[in-house]
Amino acid sequence: MLVVLVGVVGVVGALDESRLDGRRVYSVALGMAVSSSPRTTSAPDLHTFEHHWQDEADAAYLYRLLSGLETDPKKSDLYRRLAEVEDRHTDIWAKLLRDHGRDPGKFRPSARTRLLARLGNWFGPGFLLPMLLAEEGREVKGYLDMHRGTARGTPGSNESLLLARESAEHASTLNEISGKSGEPWHRTESGGFLRNVVYGFNDGLTANFGLVAGVIGASSQAAHHQVIVAGLAGLIADALSMGSSGYLAAKSEAEVYANEIAMERDEIALMPEVERDELALIYEAKGMAREPAYALATEVMADPARMLEEQVQEELGISDPHMSPMREAWITGTATAVGALIPVFPFLIWTGWTAIVIAFAVAMASHWIVGAARSIFTGRSVFRSGLDMFVVGLGVAVAGYFVGEWVARLAG
Questions:
Q1: What is the pLDDT of residues 381-395, one digit of tens each?
Q2: Do the Cβ atoms of 188 and 316 come closer than 8 Å?
Q3: pTM beyond 0.70, yes or no
Q4: Helices 125-148, 46-69: inter-axial angle, 10-degree rounding
Q5: What ranges do the domains of the chain cover?
Q6: Alpha-carbon distance 13 to 17, whole Å?
Q7: In CATH, which superfamily holds the domain spanning 14-21+40-178?
Q8: Distances (CA, A) of 369 to 98, 375, 387
Q9: C-alpha distances in angstroms, 94 versus 53, 57, 91, 101, 168?
Q10: CA distance 219 to 175
Q11: pLDDT tens across 265-307, in order?
């Protein structure tokens, strides 16, 4: 896990005392932006104050641990100073609690923090660094949500915005040390993750249940009929499963993107200077000189709609909307049905070994053709791409045959 820190000595060398102090001054100097989002809470939420007090104190504790574990003096000093900033954040929440008659008490690390500390001692700084990066990202999102939901002038409103900005600066610092880019409080990759989870679970549960039910329903018929009924039951179950999976996955992905875009819109309203500088860095990374990049980002910032469009595309990597969930369902379900029909249709025409041989030959040929078609997108040779799919299909067929034979013997 220590590989996270490889190759970042040059980056950390630039993170000296003046830079960190400058970031602190910069964060405070931003002032308090006015949110366009509706405010709902007018009374101070002391439970939320306690939650943030604990989070900030836990972060300071882990930063000090990270500083002690780090062998690079510059990194160690940086982590120590980040711990001091977290101490200041803790003091802000402690003061708010005491002002409203609640003493936060003596700090005791949470169970999760104690676990992370133990793991950090075992595995070193490379383990703790990404954990703290993720925590800073969660803090930014949490503070922005708190600011949006708290009435202006209510205790915690201005503090949450200030701490959102400073946490964003911390996250940017840790991002550079980790060799990453972007804003860690955004999770656009969640769309792909949700797609995999939804597809796998829904398909495995629904299709397998449908196939088993079909076989049970045909158990009193001849073996030939069992194959047909099981195959058609599997076809229908697979088509419905994959179609519904396509719908749910596309809908989930759209909701993830909509949430990230809404968050980016709030960040532009609440932290305009931070977002402007982020966009300028993106332009620099694409080859523009520093001054023109900053000027262009400032120009874009003057138009909030254009700024949102630029940040969504450049920072979040979200382009034009994908297919509608219903269209995705039809395409996925239809493609699944066509594929599932191929090994079944020979049994609708022939019987016995003739049907088995033809079904095997057609299915394997289809695997090769589909694999070969992939070469259009992958750039690999037609033969190699087709061979990959052929081998996979053959392996599945052989495994399925012997597993089925084994189960039949056990059942017999």
A1: 788 888 988 888 888
A2: yes
A3: no
A4: 160
A5: 14-21+40-178, 345-412
A6: 10
A7: Ferritin, core subunit, four-helix bundle (1.20.1260.10)
A8: 71, 10, 9
A9: 7, 10, 5, 11, 21
A10: 60
A11: 877 887 787 778 877 877 776 678 888 888 888 888 888 888 8
